[in-house]
Amino acid sequence: MPEALTVKDEKATEPTAAAPAPEKAAKPRSLWSDAWHDLRRNPLFVASAVLITLLLTMAFFPGLFTSADPRYANLDYYLQKPKWGNVFDKDWLGYDVQGRSIYARVIYGARASIAVAVAVTAIVTLLGTVVGMLAGYFGGWIDTLLSRITDIFFGVPFILGAMVVLTSFEVRALYVVILALAFLGWTQIARVARGSVLTIKNADYVQAAKALGASTPRILLKHIVPNAIAPVIVVATIALGGYISAEATLSFLGIGLAEPTVSWGVDISSGQEQLRNQPSILMIPSFMVSVTVLAFIMLGDAVRNALDPKLR
């Protein structure tokens, strides 16, 4: 009996294991962090992002891809065929009717085409968001006035309207093409922003901010814009590719950018006459336009899928 008591006493004096600490609840992710989490795992986004990064590198640092001058002409190279074995050399894709390197012009042409698209997208996104936000938030006669103005511009065919605007300028520099496209391209984003604001302005957090006496600018900037901007970003991303195509179309028609500006649209326009003799003059810049537009459309689709809760 004494031994049994001793054993029991020893067991009683042994330290008990510490209770496991309660696990901390995972911090809820915001819409943007949740979207980024999905985008990183989307092959469509990864492929388009890599391609767009390459195109932007070509636009900003063309010297990394070629040392040839895209404007240097030598008639000794008149319509020389591509030399596919000389990869990344100036004669890799052949020469045009003026003896200029097609490869150099493709590389440097990305700068003008992408610059036009990015600048137009930035302008129309800012303008369209402001117009749509004011119309949707204030309503009443402000909404009626801004909506009717938007409808007027929306009723003008985009390419036809840009042609009319550009033909009124003697010199069609880069900024002229940008302003002409932006002048007619903001309507779609304005409609999207208006619809998004109409959905959000009656939300509980907006009504609570009004009840607490928050000023109208604060409500718009702190509550409306952050929660209404997602569909605007999706539309702007997809539209960016369309502006590249629009610039190429106008330049092909001889109304957009013109020599000595180096752009894909200018090269497509000059290469149409040599389609039978040297198809690469026309086909290569056309291929670059198609790939660039496809990349931005793919990016827009991936962003839309990530930001739209209904598609999850």
How are the SSEs placed, and which strands pair?
Layout: H1 2-13, H2 31-39, H3 43-60, H4 102-138, H5 140-154, H6 158-167, H7 174-185, H8 187-200, H9 204-211, H10 216-252, H11 264-271, H12 280-307
Structure, explained:
The protein is an all-alpha fold and 312 residues long. Helices cover 67% and strands 0% of the residues. The chain is built from twelve helices and no strands. It has helices spanning 2-13, 31-39, 43-60, 102-138, 140-154, 158-167, 174-185, 187-200, 204-211, 216-252, 264-271, 280-307. The protein starts with a helix and ends in a 5-residue tail after the last helix. Mean pLDDT is 83; it is low at 1-14.
Q: What characterizes the major β-sheet?
A: none
Poorly predicted sequence stretches spanning 5 or more consecutive residues: 1-14
Question: What overall form do the CA principal axes indicate?
Answer: elongated
Coarse structural class = mainly alpha
Give helix % range. Answer: 55-70%
Percent strand equals under 5%
Q: How many helices does DSSP assign?
A: 12
Helices and strands, in N-to-C order?
A: HHHHHHHHHHHH
- Taking all residues together, what is the mean pLDDT? 83
**N-to-C CA distance:** 70 Å
Roughly how many Å is the radius of gyration?
Answer: 29 Å
E-strand count = 0
